[in-house]
Amino acid sequence: MGGAVPRFSWKTSLVVLVVLGLTGWSFYGTEFDLAELFSSTRPMERFVSGMFPPDLSAVTLRQTGTGLMETFQMSFLGALIGAAAAFPLSALATQEPSTVGASRGERLLRAIPYHAARLVINVFRSVPDILRALVFVMAVGLGPFPGTLALAVHSAGILGKLYSETLEAVPDRPVDALRATGAGTLQAFLFGRFPQAVIGLTSLTLYQWECNIRSAAVLGLVGAGGIGQQIIISMNLFDYSKVATLVGATIVAVLVVDGLSTAIRRRLVY
After folding, report:
1. pTM to 2 decimals?
2. Is 128 helix (H, G, I), strand (E, B) or coil?
3. Which of 16, 114, 198, 209 has the highest CB neighbour number within 10 Å of its CB?
4. Do 208 and 155 touch, CB atoms closer than 8 A?
5. What does the pLDDT look like over 224-247, one tens digit per residue?
6. Burial class of residue 130 in the structure, from the number of CB atoms within 10 Å of its CB (0-12 exposed, 13-18 middle, 19+ buried)
7. What is the DSSP letter of 182?
8. What pLDDT, in 10s, does the model give residues 63-104?
C-alpha cells in the first residue's frame, strides 16, 4: 500500500551536510543580516525618491542616446571579437574520445594543446572586467575602445568555456563514423561535431551579447565609455534624476536585445 522506503545513502547525507555547513559558514562570514537591511531603508528611500521624476530634458535625452549607441556598439563588437577568439580555443579545449591504438606519445601531443587552450580560457575568465578595462584604459586612453577590448577578452573567456562544453556534449557517433571512414581530426570536428552544436553556439553568443550590455555599464566606473560612464558622472554630481533616465534607458536596451536574440534563436530552431 505504501510506497517504497527510500534507501539510506551516506553520499547524499554527506552532500546535504556539506551544503548546510557551507551555508552557515557563508552566512557567518558575510555577516548576512536581513533585520539590519530592513531597519536601514531610510538612505535607500532618499536615493530612490531623488530619482523621481526622471530628467527628460532634451540635453539628457541626447546624451542618453549617445551613451546607448556607444554601449550597443561596444557590446556587439566585444561579443563578435570574443566569439571569433573563443571558437578556435574551444575547438582545442574540447576533449575528444581517445583513439584506439594511439601511442602514449600521440596522446601526449594531443593533450598539450588541450591543456594550453584550457589555461588561456581560464586566464581570460579569471581576471575581473574592471581590472581588464583599467589596464586597457591606461594603454589606449579613455573612451569606448578600451571598454570594447575588455568586453572582447571577457567574452572570449566565457564563450570559450561554454563552447567547449557544448561541443563535448554532442553525440560522438557521427564523429566516430567519420573517423572510421578515414577522416582526420579537423575533418571529424568540422563535419561531425560542429554541425550538431552550431545552434547552441549561436544561442550562447547571443546571450553573451546581452551580458555585455550590462557589463558595459559597469565598465564606466573606470572611464571605459558607454552609458555606464555617464551614470558614474551623474552619480558623482548627485544628479539622481538623470541617473534614473540613464538606468531606465539601459533596461530598455537590454530588453530590446533580449527580444531580438530570442527571435533569432526561434528562427534557428524552427
Report:
1. 0.80
2. coil
3. 209
4. yes
5. 778 888 888 888 888 889 999 998
6. middle
7. T
8. 899 888 888 899 999 999 999 999 999 988 887 765 544 566
Q: Label each residue of 60-88 as H, E or C.
A: HHHHHHHHHHHHHHHHHHHHHHHHHHHHH
CA distance 1 to 252: 56
Amino acid at 164: S
C-alpha cell at 164: 567547449
- Cβ atoms within 10 Å, residue 51: 17
Residues in the chain: 270
Q: Where are the alpha helices (DSSP H) in the chain?
A: 10-30, 34-38, 42-50, 58-92, 104-126, 129-140, 144-169, 173-180, 185-188, 194-219, 226-236, 240-269
Provide the phi-psi class of 129: left if phi over 0, else alpha when psi is between -120 and 50, else beta.
Answer: alpha
3-state secondary structure of 238: coil
Q: Taking each helix axis from N to C terminus, what angle separates 240-269 and 58-92, rounded to the nearest 10 degrees?
A: 40
Question: What letter represents residue 237's amino acid?
Answer: L
Q: Give residues with Cβ within 8 angstroms of 78, minimum separation 6.
A: 147, 148, 149, 150, 151, 152, 154, 155, 212, 216
Calpha distance 78→84 (Å, rounded): 10
Whether 114 contacts 128, CB under 8 Å = no
CB under 8 Å to 140, separation ≥6 — which residues?
146, 149
Report the C-alpha gap between 177 and 147 in whole angstroms: 45
